[in-house]
Amino acid sequence: MLTVAKGTNAALMFFLELGVLASVGYWGFTVSSHLALRLLAGLGGPALFIAVWAIFGAANDPVVPLTGVARAVLEILWFGGGAVALVASGLVTTGTVFAALYILNAVLRLVWNQV
């Protein structure tokens, strides 16, 4: 039973990662009434997040692997950025739920030594 719960928590982490990209993209496409700015933010925001995650946070061989406090800071900024993007685009409840799911996921990963 615990193995299933750990697997579910790992899957939640993956879906939260995708959720960050969707959140930042959504925010970008709602940021302005100007089409050029919406395209820049809506496509550029997720691209920037992808680059940062690929360099520092990827599960398999990141370019600059982070551990300990540095990894915690990266995750807080990454997933917090997704939650803030939702709130900034007017989806306050969704952003709050997203943040709560990340916190639950992070606590369980610490307890189950999945970090």
Rg value: 15 Å
Coarse shape: globular
Number of helix segments? 4
* Structural class based on helices, strands and sheet pairing: mainly alpha
Can you give the helix content as a percent range? over 70%
The N- and C-terminal alpha carbons lie at a distance of 20 Å
Count the E strands.
0
Order of helices and strands: HHHH
Percentage of β-strand residues: under 5%
Average of pLDDT: 96
Biggest sheet overview: none
Which stretches are low in confidence, meaning pLDDT under 50 for 5 or more residues running? none
Keyphrases for this structure?
single chain; 115 residues; mainly alpha; globular
Q: What's the SSE blueprint?
A:
Blueprint: H1 2-30, H2 35-57, H3 68-88, H4 92-111
Helix pairs in contact: 1-2, 1-3, 1-4, 2-3, 3-4
Task: Describe this entry's structure for a reader.
- The chain has four helices and no strands.
- By secondary structure, the protein is mostly helical.
- The longest helix has 29 residues.
Briefly characterize the structure.
The protein has 115 residues and is mainly α. It contains four helices and no strands.
